[in-house]
Design a protein that fits this description.
Layout lengths: L2 H18 L15 H22 L2 H13 L1 H17 L8 H10 L21
Helix pairs in contact: 2-4, 3-4, 3-5
């Protein structure tokens, strides 16, 4: 990924943060209350920008794997996407992310409450008779 692409990503993200911050208004209020159409449109634009950034930084196999993870564990996929976008904006990605790098990132992200522990009891086994 070239420096010009990263600069374009950074500029988009800066514009996105300014839009979220309310364009200079204190309190982060971007518009009048009840502007649900504007909010929906803004969310849609942010998601489109997010998809385009991910499209630039992920190769096809990694993109496919991340979409499959998103079907099963949407929160985990969202966390990994946030990590990838942050790494791209800070310039910590050497190039496009391949599937192996994505797998390692997926391993770093923790799932809350999904650990299952089996306690096996020994001693009272009726099969030993």
């Amino acid at each position: 990924m070239g420096d010009s692409e990263l600069e374009a990503i950074r500029a988009k993200r800066l514009a996105q943060l300014r839009a979220q911050g309310g364009g200079g208004r204190p309190g982060g209020m971007a518009g009048p209350p009840g502007g649900s159409e504007e909010d929906g449109e803004q969310k849609q634009q942010m998601e489109e920008m997010r998809r385009s950034i991910l499209h630039q930084i992920l190769d096809s196999a990694a993109r496919e794997r991340l979409s499959r993870v998103g079907i099963v564990k949407a929160e985990k996929a969202r966390k990994v996407e946030d990590m990838l976008i942050g790494m791209a904006q800070s310039g910590r990605l050497p190039g496009q992310v391949n599937e192996q790098m994505l797998i390692s990132l997926l391993g770093q992200v923790q799932d809350e409450g999904t650990k299952i522990v089996f306690d096996r009891r020994k001693g009272n086994d009726s099969d030993d008779d």
